[in-house]
Design goal:
Keywords: Hydrolase, Metal-binding
Distance between the termini: 31 Å
Pfam family, one: PTE
Order of helices and strands: EEEHEHEEHHEHEHEHEHHEHHE
Shape: globular
Largest sheet: 6 strands, parallel
Family: Belongs to the metallo-dependent hydrolases superfamily. Phosphotriesterase family.
Organism: Streptomyces polygonati
Number of domains: 1
Modified residues (N6-carboxylysine): 140
Radius of gyration: 18 Å
């Protein structure tokens, strides 16, 4: 039976509730020094505000090695009464020191992902460090701007192996929304990951309706997120994209998320934060798509996208993928 794996344990998909399908509570990118998200109080405030507006769950897409503060996630989830789905995986190569990437190869990269999905998330950024009780519920990978490099292909190969071992969904960062067709061809076409286990992110940042329909025809989930200063130029196309896909029969594949991060949150005065999803976006979704479709986008679709047939015992891939 399928379940959503949260940091507090597996739950029935129908228990997820209204879901922010892509956001970050904690994030530290070495390539973006000075923009770290590392304030537990602000993270808790964002979750509490989201909950007060009816929010039930957040998918936290911060992968290994980027300051995800995995040890804090269970307590934050309990305190706010919000389900949290955490991520294993790796981002683009530029966000890691070479020694950090080298240390993930000890068990094979696919085995490393599987361990975080089935045994527990590492409490810190040392692959040899202690594990907590919270498990990852998804794998995060990332494409490049209009292409895929060797690191991307290696990570996606390992993610595909980990998916085949565990059933875990794979969420994809697309740089400025680009290279989604290349990612789909690799993960689904070459590596055999079912399209229904893929969450193709940031597609609002590349508002090409023809491409969106092409991606949707595969059966993958299409994730639209924002707003932010960096992507304000395309934020206004969000509803054009959602309505066009709904009219083409793809309502059941649409996901929305804040991806506003805590530094842009109401708790710090820097932006709309997680509550924006329900305070501003939800009423507009109802107006644009209708109440039933809006419910599908916020509740039904993420419940299906984040659910998996998790193995009864810890699985491991047959090859390393490293």
């Amino acid at each position: 039976m399928k379940a959503v794996r949260t940091v507090l344990g597996d739950i029935p998909p129908g228990s997820l509730g209204v879901c922010d399908a892509h956001d970050h509570l904690f994030l530290a990118l070495p390539a973006l020094a000075g923009q770290e998200l590392d304030d537990p109080a602000a993270a808790g405030a964002e979750l509490a505000a989201f909950r007060a507006l009816g929010g039930g769950a957040v998918a936290q897409w911060t992968p290994f090695g980027l300051g995800r503060r995995a040890a804090l996630l269970p307590a934050l989830s309990r305190a706010a009464g919000v389900h949290l789905v955490a991520a294993t995986g790796l981002h683009q190569e530029r966000h890691y020191r070479p020694d950090a990437l080298a240390r993930t190869a000890g068990r094979g990269l696919a085995g490393f992902f599987v361990a975080e999905l089935t045994e527990g998330l590492l409490d810190g950024d040392d692959p040899a460090g202690p594990r907590g009780t919270a498990k990852a519920g998804m794998i995060k990978v990332a494409g490049m701007f209009h292409g895929l490099d060797d690191h991307t292909r290696r990570v996606m190969g390992a993610a595909a192996e980990a998916h085949h071992a565990t059933g875990a969904p794979i969420g994809v960062h697309h740089e400025m929304g680009s290279a989604a067709a290349d990612v789909l061809a690799l993960l689904h076409g070459e590596l055999g990951v079912p399209a229904g286990s893929l969450l193709l992110g940031h597609l609002n940042r590349f508002p090409d309706p023809g491409l969106h329909r092409e991606l949707a025809s595969s059966g993958a989930f299409l994730a639209f997120d924002g707003p932010s200063f960096a992507h304000h130029a395309t934020d206004w196309r969000l509803f054009d994209s959602l309505v066009a896909l709904a009219e083409a029969g793809h309502t059941g594949q649409l996901l929305v998320g804040g991806d506003t991060v805590v530094s842009a949150g109401r708790a710090t005065g820097g932006g709309p934060g997680m509550p924006w999803l329900l305070r501003v976006l939800r009423p507009r979704l109802v107006t644009a798509l209708g109440r039933q479709a809006a419910h599908a986008v916020l509740v039904d679709n993420p419940a299906r996208a984040l659910a998996a047939e998790w193995p009864a015992t810890d699985g491991s891939p047959t090859t390393t993928g490293a």
